[in-house]
Write a structure and sequence with these properties.
binds zinc ion, six-stranded mixed beta sheet, TIM Barrel
Length: about 300
């Protein structure tokens, strides 16, 4: 049996926000307000990823929120008018445990000539023991051919609430299958990138980890999580050529493999809780998306079916 690593441990999984902004950069909410809002919404951990401003601090310590160290970095792409850029969330280890950065350390923006040039920016963070998450490819106006050679990103954003609310972009795993079909082992994350207060707490990750920063980072790096805007996924595995997903009551379940078949089940009653798929042996990977009666999705990470 091949079980997606999100589902090998005890439930409930930790609920986390990997990308948000506060008044420390261009967000509308203070760090205290944003952390307290996430606590009210049942989050266990979050990263305050203000632009180019490193953070370790829990500004609302009474919440007990686990804060993932990190920030968001960016570079413009030289030679284009308007928005055309690379944005990346970086997530690091606790202070004093292999993380060289200091609280409130600031970083430069700048311009690069393309992804080969941006790789050096990522590599500096990888060498500093950081995970990197490629952000909002549609909002950045970077089709897959402009970021598909980047190496070392543990994940890319497949849902970004701020871009969805303001632009109708980055709604449903744009370009992800293109990278997966190339054989890349890259995971998908739902994030809020919350700037306005009503962007927060719409998309999150559910992580199979102990409640501490090193465990959460290891689980993210290993793909032991799924993403959601509402529905829950309880299990996802493959055995003897058959894939099985179990979830909270949904109106639609879709398997995706970068190929045909890509089967879909729909129920107007919104009462689907399981789907099986006998898949052909040539598939490289298989992932699943479920949608509830309100149209909110959850996305599994892939099962990688080939060695
Ligand atoms: Zn951004
Ligand atoms: Zn952002």
């Amino acid at each position: 049996m091949l079980r997606q690593p999100a589902f090998t441990g005890a439930r409930p999984l930790l609920k986390g926000a990997l990308h948000c902004h506060t008044t420390r950069s261009d967000g509308k909410g203070t760090p205290q307000e944003v952390i307290r809002l996430h606590k009210q919404q049942g989050y266990d951990f979050m990263a305050l990823t203000d632009h180019r401003l490193y953070n370790y601090e829990n500004f609302a310590p009474e919440t007990g929120m686990i804060i993932l160290p990190g920030m968001e970095i960016d570079r413009g792409i030289r030679g284009f008018e308007g928005v055309h850029c690379f944005h990346t969330v970086v997530l690091g280890r606790p202070q004093g445990e292999g993380n060289p950065f200091s609280q409130d350390q600031t970083f430069e923006t700048g311009q690069v000539d393309g992804q080969q040039d941006f790789q050096a920016v990522l590599d500096a963070f990888h060498q500093a023991n950081h995970l990197t998450l490629y952000c909002h490819p549609e909002w950045s106006n970077t089709p897959a051919r402009e970021f598909d050679q980047l190496r070392g990103n543990f994940a890319m954003e497949i849902w970004n609430s701020g871009c969805v609310v303001e632009n109708g972009l980055d709604t449903n795993a744009a370009y992800w299958d293109e990278l997966l079909m190339q054989g890349q082992r890259i995971y998908g994350c739902a994030t809020d990138d919350g700037h306005a207060m009503d962007h927060h707490c719409m998309g999150w990750v559910r992580v199979n980890a102990a409640p501490d920063v090193p465990s959460i980072l290891a689980a993210l790096e290993g793909g032991a999580f799924y993403s959601s805007c509402g529905p829950e996924i309880y299990d996802f595995y493959a055995e003897n050529g058959k894939a099985v997903v179990e979830c909270s009551p949904c109106a639609e379940i879709n398997f995706r493999c970068g190929q045909y078949p890509c089967p879909r089940t729909v129920s107007s009653a919104g009462d689907l809780t399981r789907m099986e798929f006998e898949y052909p042996p040539y598939l490289r990977y298989l992932r699943v998306t479920v949608s509830d009666a309100q149209g909110r999705r959850a996305w599994s990470n892939p099962l990688f079916l080939q060695p």
